[in-house]
Write a structure and sequence with these properties.
There is one protein chain. With about 210 residues, this protein is mainly α. The chain contains twelve helices and no strands.
């Protein structure tokens, strides 16, 4: 939905005496999110709450997604806290959004904290959640990053979540940093048995491994 058109429709409806409900406000927030306008989304959330209308889980999810795209990690965490005050439990989408917000700014420790909070809440990570946490640790390089990439990858396999080519590439990169050719070959064979095709990044890493 176009944001300006949505806001115009909103004003026209109010002028005609139509009382906006939670779905109308969520649509406005959604339109704001679509154009990555977090300030507008915040505005409509405040208006909504000022009218005494309680946001739904979907509303909060939209807000977190917007903050995640912009790397506004503290704002995303603020939404989780607001949900708790409202008596709503965060779901997989909420937690993954908060992790993604921290990934955006390279804050692996905070991303890990929220990843563990999600698991403590009894929510099992899916492919997207694992992708986010593995990606942020991979960006840390050869120190604690490598160890955590492999740890989460193994946990993912144990949980029965099928990795993507993108995640395998993160693992191959970790193997390259460790100069561990044998581990890289084992995971490449695993990748093939899962029916995943190597891409140009996979080939580039194995070319570098061959030169070690």
């Amino acid at each position: 939905m176009n944001l300006k058109r949505a806001e115009m429709w909103f004003e026209e409806a109010k002028n005609d005496g139509v009382q906006p409900n939670v779905y109308v406000y969520t649509a406005l927030i959604d339109a704001s999110c679509a154009v990555r306008d977090s300030k507008s989304a915040e505005h409509w959330l405040k208006v909504m709450e000022g009218e005494g209308i309680k946001p739904t889980l979907v509303t909060y999810n939209r807000m977190i997604s917007t903050y995640a795209r912009d790397g506004l990690a503290l704002s995303a965490v603020g939404i989780i806290k607001a949900m708790k005050r409202a008596g709503l439990n965060a779901d997989l989408i909420c937690y993954t959004g908060v992790i993604a917000a921290h990934e955006k700014i390279g804050d692996a420790e905070s991303a890990e904290k929220w990843f563990q909070e999600m698991k403590k809440a009894g929510i099992e990570p899916d492919l997207t959640a694992y992708d986010r946490i593995i990606s942020v640790w991979a960006s840390r390089g050869p120190e604690d990053g490598i160890e955590n990439v492999i740890k989460h990858f193994k946990t993912m396999l144990d949980a029965g979540v099928k990795p993507s080519t993108r995640i395998f590439n993160r693992v191959f990169q970790a193997c390259l940093m460790m100069k561990d050719k044998s581990m890289a070959r084992i995971y490449r064979d695993m990748m093939k048995t899962m029916g995943l095709r190597p891409d140009h990044r996979t080939k580039r890493v194995f070319k570098a491994l061959a030169q070690l």
